Structures are given as C-alpha cells and as structure tokens.
C-alpha cells in the first residue's frame, strides 16, 4: 500500500468503504492497494487508448507484479463513443475471457472511461468489482468518486446508468503530465465548483494561486486536488444516492451545462467548459433572485477566466437551451431543481424559478 | 391495501423492505399497495403482450383509480426478445414520456418481463422504482422476488444485469387462469425445487396433493404458492447479493438447466423444464458422490413426473452440455459450484466434483 500521506479520503457507502489515493507515481502501488481492498482474481484493465502505450503498460506491469493476471483492452473514449454499442463491445470482450464475479475491472482514463467502464462493471454478471484509475483532472476531483456511472442514449446524456461504488480510486498525478491544457482547465472547473458551493477556503486557494496551481510540479496543486477529492468524498458519504439535499449541490452549473452539451452536440464543449458556462448562467439566476450580489458573480467569472475557462457560449439559442433543460433527469414532477449559490462556498436548491428569469440569465451567457 | 391474509412475505434488503402479496384479484389493489410502499408520481406499465387486453386493462384501471397517471407499453416477452435491443426500445419509450426518478415502472408478465423490465428500471436514470406483477407461476414463486434482473447476450443467458429490489411484488393468482399448462408445470419445477432444497414439508405437500395443486381454485394451491414465496423471501433476506452459502442453493438444477437452454437454443425447453432435467442430473451427481441414495433420486423423478415435467433431454450431447456449464456465471476461478442434495429438504454446494462423474450423470439424463 502507499503511504498514508497519499490517502486523500475514505468514502463510506452502502457497498462498503473505499480509499481514494492521490499522489505522483501511485499507479505502481495498484497491486498492493487492490489486495488491501480485498480484491483477488484476475484484472481486466480497460483503458482509454490515449493512455497507450506508456501509461497502460506501466499499469499492466504494476497489476501483474501485484499478483493480478491481467487482460488489457484499449478503446477510444469520448462522449460520442460513450454509448451502448461500446458497452456491448466490452461485454463481448469480457465474455471471450470468461471474466467472473471474483475478477476486477479496472477503468483507466478520463470521465468517459470511468462512466462507461463503470457501467459495464455495474451490469456484467449483475455487478463485478471496479477500480477507478482516473487520468484527467475532472475525473480525479469529481467523476471517479461516488459510484455514478452511465452511458448516453441518442436522446440524451447519461440516461442509462447505475450507482456502482468502486473498491478503490487510484489517482496518479503523473497521468496529468500529458493531459491537454484544455482538459486540465475543464477539470479545474469541477474543482473550483467544489470551492464555490462548499468551501470558501478552497475557492480562495484557487483565486490566489492560479499560476502555481496550473503547474503540476507544485505540491500545492497535489494538495488542492486532495482537498477537492475530500469534499467530493464527504458529500458522497453523506448522500450516496442523491436522495438528500447534499449531493445534488454538486450539480451546480450542470443544468445549463448539460443543455449546452446537448444542444451544441457532445464534444463541441468539454464537460467542464459547459459547466463553467452553466455556473455563470446559474450565478445570473441567483443574482436575479437576490440570493447573491453582482460581486460574487464577477468573482466567479474572474476565477474561471484565470483557469482559461469559457464564461459564454456561442452558436446556440436561449430557446434551445431552455428546452433541453426540461429533459434533464434531475427534474422531478416537471419542475427543474436549480442549484444556486447563496454566498461564496454556500449553495442551495430552488424549484420555483420563473422561466423568464432563467431566460434572461441564459441570454446573458450567449455570445451575440 | 389488501388484507394481511394475502401478505405472503416481507423481504428485507439493503434497498429497503417490501411486501409480497399473493391472492386472487389482488391486482385491483395495486394503487393502495403502491401508495403504502411510498410510491407516487406516474406509473409506466410495461406488460407482456400476452396479457393484453383484459389483464392489462384491469391493471391500468387499478393504477389510475389508485391515483397513478399511467402509460402502457406491451411487448413480446420471450427469451429471444430478452436482449439489449428490446431494452433500448423501452428506454426510447421512457424517454419519449420523460419518465423521471420519482415515477414507477410496473413489470407485468412472466420471468422474462420481470427480468427485462427490472433491468430497464435498474438502469434508467441510474435506477427508478419497480413493482413486479408476475403472471406466471415460475415468476411468482421465484424470479419476481429478490431483485435479480438481467438480459441475455448472444453469447449467454443473463450475462448482463443488476440487483434491483422491487418496491412491491403483487401476485394475482387469477393471472394463472390463462397460463398454458406447460408453463404451469415449469413454475411447479421451481416451487418443488424449494421443497427439495429447503423444506421437506413443502416437498411432501407437492407429492401428496398433485391433483389438487394443479387446480387453481383450490385454497391449498394458493397457500402453497405463499409458502414457496416465503422460502424465497427468507433466502433473499438472508443473502441478498448471493455472497453467502444460502442464496446459491436456489440454483439447484440450474447449472445443467442453463446448459440445456443454451445448447438446445433458448425457447426449446422452458426454463422450468430445463431446471427439472438439471435437477435430475444434479441428483445423479449427488448419488454418485454418496451424498444421497437412489431412493431420493427416484422420489424426485416421481414428483417431477406427477407435475408433467420432463426428466430427460434429447437432441444434445453430454460434451456440449459440459462445455456450456463452464461459461456459467456461478463459476469461480474456473471451478463450477454445484448445488447438490444431502437429503430431502437439504442441499449444499460442492466445488470438487470430477468432470467424469458429471459426465456420467449428464449422460443418464440424455435420451438415446
């Protein structure tokens, strides 16, 4: 096992507790970490082809060294491929190798890999253990923790999925060295979101250390990822199935964000970019409702811009975005549940937001 | 709610407790029963087209009368249709109607309906509530209870699925009035199995009252269904995820049974028929291992024959059946976990069964 220094959080769920490890080079410890998590049998490493060959080989070797006979599959992992056809392809591969309930699926890649491979693990033989090895910043601070897995349907994103908690989340910061700058920014959007909704100190850290944060050599960056991971872990432990009022807060910026992704076509905006714009729209709504003042809106815009994130969208209409929000799966009884800021590091949900007010706020984030 | 007289069992699971109601005409109470189970929102009734129009209309009316605005979809439900294409068709329909997390899916039909619609409910929006309304005897006494849901892949049966507990199981014995005799027999196979592995008194009841049991007007038949339901409910409550040594006992006869279904092509033998033959093969294995004597083998054969069940298979080879058992998902580390009788109403699992001994027992149930 890795030293406790790298242990960012322990997530408590109905499916058991699991460790989230964050550090440089921790992939080499995947074998002992999996054994410590009670896993044995074979490993089925399913990786984003973008991590091939170097990172995939290193993970493969670490698994074998740790005593896990390993089969490897690499796949194109992007929003367009995050569908049932790809899922069927992975089932086919698992079937060929007779993957069993005692074996472990290892998901290596960004958010798409975690979602898709996690969904396969949730449903193969009614559920097999999964280890998440997120390799993008967005997946590290957000998607890899909490067991939400899903794939897209032609009619909408993440409509099919499950809650399937991993047995271990292993985050090797070295994997970020090759991450394109734009994807790093997308990850910062989710991490900054954690500060905005739940942790004013984390928000301060992002504001005051933008340059240092974006250099991954910095210990501050690694510590800040760990802090962001902790927030996510606490939220998930408190509200595993998103039935309460806590986990839903993580959807800040996501109602309009999802609409932007759907209307502009998946892939045009990265998820984190769409969320950044969505957070700006949500801030506009909160300001119009008198929940926050213009200063916090400006402060949010400023920190997002410091991390090279978009704060406006182009090529879409307010009508199309608003229509798209109506099929968002967080709606209940037809009323959209908005996550809105009440102050720096504080958020709440509201259902009673007039559509005209939403329209005004949405128009404000659309480029002329 | 129905009277407590109709309450067969309460199943305790990590996803909450739920009632299993067994009685004649209880479908009319589905609305109050669903409300009592904490359900609200809309209902999406997905029924085997074989139940259309009379039974479907009656269920639809009962739902509406109970305050559940209801959409209805009917589908051909058979092993060949129990696949991902059909699942996608149901997702599409749910999407058209914007089915939400607060809504309830009602699965009405035999085992295929429960498995397929249950899997849709397990995965739509990461899981929505499902109510099981089994209309075949096999589904009543077995598949509708316990949350195991699945669909087939071209390479194997039930390879993709989930554990998704229902919120309510409502079994209207009147639905059996139109069930073909062959399917009734298939259901008796599962019910007799409960007696063989866990309840010598239930086995006696089946032996001594074969004629009366097969007339559904008899109160004894309804009480015996309730007893069989109770056994299943106790097993599920004790071992929800089939991790212990209890729930796996329900797979008695299923290793060879699944192999028969796979090798002969799904649909050639009903599931219960294949299980009956599989139980005869398993009894032959147990006898060869000295676990039981020939008398119990003959007693099992006799009771199965009394309920018009097959005890031998034709058109398949022992080699093909044994090969097919090796891809059975209950295997672990390659070794098949056999469920074998130790006596009337007592079963155990064994992993150390020599293949040659299995072959002898399998050959004994193959017709020349």
What does this structure look like?
2 copies of one chain form a homodimer. Chain A has helices at residues 30-36, 54-65, 84-96, 111-123, 137-143, 181-198, 200-208, 210-214, 219-238, 254-264, 271-288, 294-306, 318-325, 355-364, and strands spanning 7-13, 16-23, 43-48, 70-75, 104-109, 130-134, 148-153, 156-163, 168-172, 338-343, 346-350. Chain A is globular. Chain A folds into 2 domains: 7-178, Rossmann fold; 181-364, Dehydroquinate synthase-like - alpha domain (Dehydroquinate synthase-like, alpha domain, Up-down Bundle), CATH 1.20.1090. The first copy, chain A, has 368 residues and is of the alpha/beta class. In chain A, helix 3 (84-96) packs across helix 4 (111-123), helix 6 packs antiparallel against helix 7 (200-208) and helix 10 crosses helix 11. The model of chain A has no long low-confidence stretch (mean pLDDT 94). The longest helix of chain A is centred in the middle third of the chain and has 20 residues, at 219-238. The termini of chain A are far apart. In chain A, the strands form 3 sheets. In chain A, strands 1-2-9-6-5-3-4 form a 7-stranded mixed sheet, sandwiched between helices. A two-stranded antiparallel ribbon of chain A has the order 7-8. Chain A binds chain B through residues 14, 41, 84, 88, 91-92, 95, 98, 100-102, 122-127, 148-150, 153, 155-156, 159-163, 326-327, 329, 331-333, and chain B through 14, 41, 84, 88, 91-92, 95, 98, 100-102, 122-127, 148-150, 153, 155-156, 159-163, 326-327, 329, 331-333.
């Amino acid at each position: 096992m890795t030293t406790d220094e790298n242990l960012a959080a322990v997530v408590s769920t109905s499916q058991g507790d699991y460790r989230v490890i964050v550090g440089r080079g921790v992939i080499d410890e995947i074998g002992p970490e999996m054994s410590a998590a009670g896993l044995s049998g074979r490993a089925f490493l399913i990786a984003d082809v973008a991590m091939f060959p170097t990172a995939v080989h290193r993970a493969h070797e670490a698994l074998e060294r740790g005593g896990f006979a390993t089969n490897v599959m690499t796949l194109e992992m992007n929003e367009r491929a995050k569908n049932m056809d790809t899922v069927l392809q992975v089932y086919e591969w698992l079937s060929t190798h007779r993957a069993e309930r005692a074996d472990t699926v290892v998901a290596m890649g960004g958010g798409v890999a975690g979602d898709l491979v996690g969904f396969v693990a949730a449903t193969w033989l009614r559920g097999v253990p999964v280890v998440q090895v997120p390799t993008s910043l967005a997946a590290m601070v957000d998607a890899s923790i909490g067991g939400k897995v899903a794939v897209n349907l032609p009619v909408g994103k993440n409509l099919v999925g499950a809650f399937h908690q991993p047995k271990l989340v292993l985050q090797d910061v070295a994997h970020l060295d090759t991450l394109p700058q734009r994807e790093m920014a997308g990850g910062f959007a989710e991490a900054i979101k954690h500060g905005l909704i739940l942790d004013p100190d984390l928000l301060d850290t992002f504001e005051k250390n933008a340059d240092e944060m974006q250099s991954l050599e910095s210990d501050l960056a690694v510590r800040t990822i760990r802090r962001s991971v902790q927030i996510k872990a606490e939220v998930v432990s408190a509200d595993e199935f998103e039935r309460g009022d806590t986990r839903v807060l993580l959807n800040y910026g996501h109602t309009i964000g999802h609409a932007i992704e759907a209307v502009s076509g998946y892939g045009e905006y990265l998820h984190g970019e769409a969320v950044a714009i969505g957070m700006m729209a949500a801030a506009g709504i909160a300001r119009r409702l008198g929940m926050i003042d213009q200063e916090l809106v400006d402060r949010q815009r400023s920190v997002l811009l410091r991390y090279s994130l978009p704060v406006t969208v182009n090529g879409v209409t307010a009508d199309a975005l608003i229509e798209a929000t109506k099929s968002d799966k967080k709606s209940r009884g037809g009323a959209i549940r908005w996550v809105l800021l009440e102050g720096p590091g504080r958020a709440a949900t509201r259902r009673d937001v007039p559509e005209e007010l939403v329209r005004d706020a949405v128009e404000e984030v659309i480029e002329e």
